[in-house]
Write a structure and sequence with these properties.
Layout lengths: L3 H6 L20 E12 L3 E14 L2 E12 L5 E13 L3 E12 L4 E13 L4 E12 L3 E13 L2
Antiparallel strand pairs: 1-2, 1-8, 2-3, 3-4, 4-5, 5-6, 6-7, 7-8
């Protein structure tokens, strides 16, 4: 037979609501790959390209290097550049940076430089959207043209 004393000693277990999970922060450090398109003012018209880069993060500072291959859509002329960039995180989701680099236009055997600025925004756990404007010139020849590009990068 049961005992009413046992029932008096029973303490029900109440489960608390689990603590809310903190939102995932975007991982700016590491390797990324992407594609971009835009317009080159003064020379080629529209362009498209691919990028492979790597970022280093120290607090809010982000530095990095990338390699890009850009082609004029209508002209078929392409150029390749290696760039460095340095910027600062605004919150965890946005990066403002300066970029500069050197490269070549193989068909005309010309060496070029680039300098500009951009912004990149995290739009998911591993995807970022970037907008960038740069001046491109030849060594000894001054500024030749300007580019405005928008792209998507994947940060695995």
């Amino acid at each position: 037979m049961g005992s009413s004393a046992w029932a008096a000693d029973f303490t029900p277990v109440v489960l608390a609501d689990p603590a809310p999970m903190a939102p995932a922060t975007f991982g700016w450090e590491g390797t990324y790959v992407g594609a971009y398109g835009g317009f080159i003012f003064g020379v080629f018209g529209s362009n498209a390209g691919a990028i492979l880069g790597h970022n280093f993060v120290n607090g809010r500072f982000v530095g990095g290097v990338d390699a890009r291959l850009t082609a004029g859509v209508a002209s078929g002329i392409y150029f390749a550049t290696i760039n460095g960039r340095a910027g600062f995180l605004i919150g965890d989701q946005a990066l403002v940076y300066a970029v500069a680099g050197v490269g070549t236009v193989p068909f005309v055997a010309t060496y070029i430089y680039t300098a500009g600025a951009g912004m990149e925004f995290a739009v998911g756990n591993s995807i970022s959207l970037c907008v960038e404007a740069k001046a491109v010139g030849t060594f000894g020849g001054g500024c030749c043209f300007a580019t405005v590009q928008m792209g998507l990068n994947w940060h695995p």
